[in-house]
């Protein structure tokens, strides 16, 4: 419900950003729940992707990356109006950037893999000798 007026109190835009952030993360989680089914850490480790599934993942992630970037720029702008710019950077590094980087890195991998892979490659079979759990304790 909109009342046709907007709060002009100093810091109100920061407050509004915080209110929107819950919705932003909910959208991220929804997209990630789809993407993580089709692009796992194994895909990234072996640089493998199913092109069709990768394209579907890009359809889900592209608007999410745009949403995260819009939040990032509007948050910085609203914080810088009332605080020194270091405050916004500190807050973002503490509460936002780790997850942002995680989503963005997966998005960039999918983009690159879909663009580079021209055929449906066979699924890589991991080498049991290279699994982390099979490595001897190195003392």
- Give the helices and strands as they follow along the chain: HHHHH
Strands, total number: 0
Beta strand %: under 5%
How far the N terminus sits from the C terminus, by CA atoms, comes to 64 Å
Structural class category:
mainly alpha
Work out the helicity level. Answer: 55-70%
Largest sheet: none
Radius of gyration: 20 Å
Low-confidence stretches: none
- Mean pLDDT across the residues is 87
What is the overall number of helices?
A: 5
Query: What overall geometry do the principal axes of the alpha carbons give?
Result: elongated
Oligomer: single chain
Features:
5 helices; 139 residues; mainly alpha
What topology emerges from the helices and strands here?
Blueprint: H1 12-38, H2 41-45, H3 51-80, H4 85-95, H5 97-116
Would you mind describing this structure in some detail?
- By secondary structure, the protein is mostly helical.
- The protein has a domain at 24-117.
- The chain has five helices and no strands.
- Helix 3 runs antiparallel to helix 4 and helix 3 (51-80) packs antiparallel against helix 5 (97-116).
- The longest helix has 30 residues, at 51-80.
- It is elongated.
């Amino acid at each position: 419900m909109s009342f046709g007026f907007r709060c002009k109190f100093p810091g109100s835009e920061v407050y509004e950003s915080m209110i929107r952030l819950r919705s932003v993360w909910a959208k991220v989680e929804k997209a990630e729940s789809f993407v993580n089914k089709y692009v796992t850490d194994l895909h990234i480790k072996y640089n493998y992707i199913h092109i069709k599934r990768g394209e579907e993942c890009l359809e889900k992630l592209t608007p999410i990356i745009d949403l995260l970037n819009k939040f990032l720029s509007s948050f910085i702008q609203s914080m810088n109006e009332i605080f020194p710019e270091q405050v916004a950077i500190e807050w973002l590094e503490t509460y936002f950037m780790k997850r942002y980087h995680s989503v963005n890195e997966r998005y960039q991998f999918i983009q690159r893999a879909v663009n580079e892979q021209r055929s449906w490659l066979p699924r890589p079979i991991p080498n049991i000798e290279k699994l982390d759990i099979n490595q001897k304790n190195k003392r």
